[in-house]
């Protein structure tokens, strides 16, 4: 006659089914906590502080961003009116973009102020400052970030640093290409290559417009400029 095989209980099942085992485990846990209560409570306190700090920072940063956006309204108005020095530096009563950056540095508004400040400096002919502020700008918006890269390229073009200009125009071209803006950046890229007398690469930039963006406003000019330098590229 076959004998019943005794089924061995798993430890976790025994823990659930046997009150004595459960009581022993709880007693051991309480004893361990009692013996190590100082480091345990210190660790818990650190965790609470970290979580509280993160929540407070998010709340504080959101409030600061709202305040910065309201403070920046006048600077944006001056920017639209082409009052660039006021837009940058304020009037003593209202902040300019530079004060927004200094006072609200970690906010989205301050990040946007870097873009505005860079454009102001380009228009004022201070290309080094333009590069500095635009390089600090980091946008979630795909079109605006590409625009910032192109503006840095423009600043380097004005400085006669055509290699650097090519680098940033190329970033603008590659950053989420689109029918409207990308051909503009390719035209700028081609011109920078021409300044470097790299006519083969300039032709390639014009070809990209012709082949990929045939409906763009730049198509006719791209064909014209390509024809103009094609002979130089073949030499």
Describe the model.
The protein contains twelve helices and no strands. With 235 residues, it is mostly helical. It folds into two domains: 38-138, Serine Threonine Protein Phosphatase 5, Tetratricopeptide repeat (Alpha Horseshoe); 141-235, Serine Threonine Protein Phosphatase 5, Tetratricopeptide repeat (Alpha Horseshoe). Helix 5 (97-103) packs antiparallel against helix 6 (108-124). Residues 4-10 and 52-60 have low confidence and may be disordered.
Strand % is under 5%
Q: Span between N and C termini?
A: 100 Å
Order of helices and strands: HHHHHHHHHHHH
Q: Which class of secondary structure composition applies to the elements?
A: mainly alpha
Helix share of residues?
over 70%
Largest sheet: none
Shape: globular
Domain count, please report it: 2
Over all CA atoms, what is the radius of gyration? 31 Å
Assigned CATH class of the largest domain: Mainly Alpha
Q: Helical element count?
A: 12
Provide the residue-averaged pLDDT: 83
Would you identify the CATH architecture of the largest domain? Alpha Horseshoe
Number of strands: 0
Low-confidence regions: 4-10, 52-60
CATH topology of the largest domain: Serine Threonine Protein Phosphatase 5, Tetratricopeptide repeat
Features:
single chain; mainly alpha; 12 helices; 235 residues; 77% helix; Serine Threonine Protein Phosphatase 5, Tetratricopeptide repeat; 2 domains
Task: Provide a concise account of the structure shown.
The protein is an all-alpha fold and 235 residues long.
What is the topology?
Blueprint: H1 11-17, H2 19-35, H3 37-80, H4 84-89, H5 97-103, H6 108-124, H7 127-135, H8 142-159, H9 162-174, H10 182-195, H11 199-212, H12 219-233
């Amino acid at each position: 006659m076959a004998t019943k095989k005794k089924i061995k209980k798993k430890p976790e099942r025994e823990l659930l089914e046997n009150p004595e085992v459960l009581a022993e485990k709880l007693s051991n846990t309480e004893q361990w906590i009692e013996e190590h209560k100082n480091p345990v409570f210190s660790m818990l306190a650190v965790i609470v502080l970290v979580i509280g700090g993160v929540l407070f920072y998010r709340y504080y940063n959101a409030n600061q961003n709202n305040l910065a956006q309201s403070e920046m309204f006048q600077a944006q108005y001056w920017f639209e009116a082409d009052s660039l020095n006021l837009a940058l530096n304020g009037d003593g009563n209202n902040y300019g973009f530079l004060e927004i950056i200094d006072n609200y540095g970690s906010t989205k508004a301050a990040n946007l102020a870097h873009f505005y400040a860079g454009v102001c400096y380009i228009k004022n002919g201070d290309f080094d400052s333009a590069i500095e502020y635009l390089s600090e700008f980091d946008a979630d918006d795909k079109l605006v970030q590409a625009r910032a890269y192109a503006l840095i390229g423009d600043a380097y073009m004005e400085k006669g640093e055509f290699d650097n200009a090519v680098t940033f125009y190329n970033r603008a071209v590659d950053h989420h290409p689109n029918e409207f803006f990308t051909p503009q950046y390719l035209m700028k890229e081609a011109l920078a290559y021409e300044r470097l007398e790299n006519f083969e690469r300039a032709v390639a930039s014009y070809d990209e417009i012709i082949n990929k963006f045939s409906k763009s406003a730049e198509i006719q000019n791209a064909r014209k400029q390509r024809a103009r330098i094609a002979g130089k590229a073949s030499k």
